[in-house]
Amino acid sequence: MATVSQEAINELQALMDRVEELLMRTFENVHQGYPKETLVRFLKAREGNVAKAHKMLLDCLKWRVQNEIDDILSKPIIPADLYRSVRDSQLIGLSGYSKEGLPVFAIGVGLSSFDKASVHYYVQSHIQINEYRDRVILPSASKRHRRPITTCLKVLDMTGLRLSALSQIKLLTIISTVDDLNYPEKTNTYYIANAPYIFSACWKVVKPLLQERTRKKVQVLPGSGRDDLLKIMDYSSLPHFCKGEGSGSGRHSTYGPENCYSLDHPFHQQLYSYINDQFLLREPVQPIKQGSFHVALPEAAAEGTEIAKTIESELQKFENGSGMPDSLDGLKINGD
To answer: 3-state SS string over 4-27?
Structure first.
């Protein structure tokens, strides 16, 4: 659904006015001064059903309290070499902003290996980026443009996606479920770049399983997507893998400081410094202890489970010798 009625917003607001103080405090960290926009996001995620949106929002707030999500930005991943390993294997970064002021996040779907740390470190890193986006990046953009900016754009690079992705499906499903349940409707549009040859075949299988509101957000771009993306953002905000005329991406050595995935990129330097500073503000005399910040891993939602099983089935078909090239697209992109 494209719009949510004012009546539904008012009903959900009335229900939220009754929640206990502890949940209300964490709700303030969620909405960051824009409660109406937050209510609209949860209503959209539940097709305008007030009762379902209320339950979803309450479950989200309880999840935040139980897992101390409000404190996650004061829990550094250390040592720095470990964090660098996470960044080298979980490729995500902020490349810039659209002409409308929305943050542009780049995600290296095909080249992410998720093999340098435990599942908990990757989940911690993902949630920290979500929280930094929602509590620092988006409020700053809103202030700069003098209007609420509560969503972002994501450019997904499919370069290098191979059968080895089979081992990543469980982790990707966990991360996607975290987003589905707790960060709904945070992505305005997903742009697919550098789609491999068999993308269309896998997309036909996955697309019908996605909710209509998600399908409408997905735009598959030709080649690197540069020309299409330049209509909505300046060249300086293009992810590094979109700056060529053709298709293709690469690792850090190819792009140097332009690579927004790298720990050396200003976005990750600022993020890591912010988290370390927050730790020192909270516990100035305590040494930072190594160890991941454990968050209860959610059971995959029904839709997510179905999509993961479908992708896994398709991958097995290719692996068993369908004669197709050893690459694919089929990443689960529903949700936030």
So the answer is: CCHHHHHHHHHHHCCCCHHHHHHH
* Distance from chain centroid for Cα 176: 8
CA 187 vs CA 89, 209, 247: distances in Å: 22, 19, 24
Q: Does residue 224 sit in the same domain as residue 88?
A: yes
| Residue 105 phi, psi (nearest 5) | -100, 130
Backbone CA torsion sign across 270, 271, 274, 275: negative
| Strand 103-108 relative to strand 92-97, pairing | antiparallel
Determine, yes or no, domain membership for 283: no
With a cut of 80, say whether residue 329 has pLDDT above it.
no
Last residue of a domain, one of 43, 66, 89: 66
Structural domain harbouring 119? 73-274+301-319
Angstrom distances, CA of residue 31 to CA of 13, 61, 63? 13, 11, 16
The radius of gyration of the chain from alpha carbons, rounded to an integer in Å, stands at: 20
- Per-residue pLDDT tens over the stretch 78-94: 898 999 999 999 999 99
Q: Cβ atoms within 10 A of the Cβ of 26, count?
A: 18
Residue 78 shares a structural domain with residue 213? yes
Residue 208 CB burial class (10 angstroms; 0-12, 13-18, ≥19)? exposed
Do both 129 and 233 map to the same domain? yes
pTM, two decimal places = 0.88
